Amino acid sequence: MREIDGIEYYPSRLRWHVEQTLRGLYGAVLRDMRALPVVDEAELSALESTYGFLSQYYEQGAEDPERARIMRGIGTSLMRLLRANAAYIEGQELPWNSRSATIQTLRAYGHGEGALVPFIGVLRNEVEPFSQEYFDKLDQLFGLIWTSIDLSEAEEQALRSLLLVEESSQMVAQTIVGALFLGTMQYFDVRKMELLFALWQQHASVMVQGAALGALLILGKRHKEELLCLHPQFVEQVQIALVADEKQLMEALKVIQIAYKTTDNHKIFREKILPELRSISDKLQQVMGHSLTERIEELQNGSIDREKLEEVESLMAKAPDKFSMLKDTEQDVAYHMISELKAFPFFSKISHWFIPFDEHFPGLSKDNVAAFKKLLPMMLQGQRMISSDLYSYALVPTWEQIGSAMLSQMEGQMPSGSPTEITFVDGVKDFVFGAYRFYQLSSHANTLINPFDHSPEMISGAFLSSRCTLSEEGLLSLASIMVRFGQYAEAGHTYERVVHDYRTNTAEVWRGMAVASMMRNDDEQALEQLRRAVELEGKSEVTVRKIAQILIRLGRKVEAVEWITTGEGELGEGIGYQLPLQRATLLYELGRTEEALKAAYKADYVTDGKNLQSTLLLLELLLSLGKVEEAGRRLEGKELKGELLLWAGLVSIALGHRVEGLSQLRKWQEEGSLGAELGEKLSLLEHYGIEPWEEALIEDIIYRQVQ
């Protein structure tokens, strides 16, 4: 039986009821509903009556064109009753979680059940816009929306009027998008999702449109089962709109994939890049003044001596390669820098994680924000900063102190202008990246359902799971993005969707699927997929080599040798050195040394003896087969360094030139090679009368000399 996703978010005593309802087994659920803590006797009786008549008519063979709609209506009512029970149980068992705490705070302000509609009227008519009271009321409205369970029709109409008919400000609309999203992440609410759809389609602001679509796509994955089972007409409505504007859809999907990738990127930042940054910072403090003011003064006065400047330049020259990830404009790089700036009291209110930036927000110092804005072009470098991060930086109290000195130093070098005109993508980023910060960094999020804890595979959500919702080009583009972001399982599923939806049977698609399979260590699947690619386009050097690598990982080395041999024969003279080198290595591992030598000769010939890998293997094979004189001749004229020193030393000892050989081995070891490798290679000297005790002595001499 198909597993129903999302049931785990319900209290354990309700999961059976939810699963049965989403499977359409309403009779069993209705019989057990009265055992739950919240019971609406009148509604249950009406549902039982309706379901009884419907079942009876169906059993008698009667036809009713409205039967499917009536069934969905019963299921919708049951899920609403089950959510009411879930909310009650949550309040009893988790009285201090974020939702329960927010409800208690709202009650302290006098906002109980049914407060939403009159409260909207207060915000609209009785509060001066952008005053302290206005923002306090907006925060309370946010709380009333996200903590509500199933908006009533009147509540939905009041919000729709505020957001769309009267065209509320971008400030209000974007904030409400956050509330609708947060609430629906916790408990499914089709009316909240319908409002998000309307905001995407109808609101004048591209920031609001982008935010709404980003929210809608994530929620479509979170509530896939209920949407598809009970609200297929709404799903179809959204799908039609998505198909009509695939460009917007692809832009939104890419932003969502980036947000999911940020978790992996931040781990790399913390473990690899941050220690390097701290090391450079510590060294800079040793070279220059310890405070930023001191450093600026030294630069202004020219009081840093030449030696110090050279040391600073040397430190900074090492940074670009190590910190290239911080320059990747495709990723949410700002998160790494901002994650430590979310402890301000400002962020104690959930709504403040979603509210658009306003420099006049009460509590922000006007002079400090003005100083911050002057430095913003330098910080942005042509990019746009999301609202949540702008608040973080604007709350730092020292901009006035450091701003004038920095501006003086940067005079004439400050980037001019501001980022380009606001776009739909900016709206998606402002919401999705802001939501990511909330769920990762806010203490409120610990008791909430985090969408970023799960797979980033949006195409499996309710709005994108139907065939041909995305074009073939769109799916291929999305799969390519996922591979680039290291989301290999999701990339593989996306390539599979291309094949399923469009019956695509091209080598490109099969190769893409194979890459995704290899990266998630599914070698059997990758092997089959690459073979399908070969069937379609014939063999290439790359595919022959990749299939051989997979066969080797699967432990099928003999089969790999046969595959490479056949491939070399079919590809002819134009191939490079890699296939014969790969074959030679395999044959040597299999103990077929004479055959391996022939393959190594071929690899060395193709590269004219200039490829180090093939040269090293050839030397080892010659030494192992007693052909030390030829090995010596092949070393003549080569610059002896690195691994060549190892083999030169071994060849010299085998030829009886022990002193010269030991000197060469010592140089090789001084370059940092491992002693364990030396011991392994010394065993080849047994062919030349060097006994095991002598091998041990040579190794000990080389190791001891280095010490």
TrEMBL record:
This is Tetratricopeptide repeat protein. It comes from Porphyromonas levii. InterPro entries: TPR-like_helical_dom_sf, TPR_rpt. The lineage of its organism: Bacteria, Pseudomonadati, Bacteroidota, Bacteroidia, Bacteroidales.
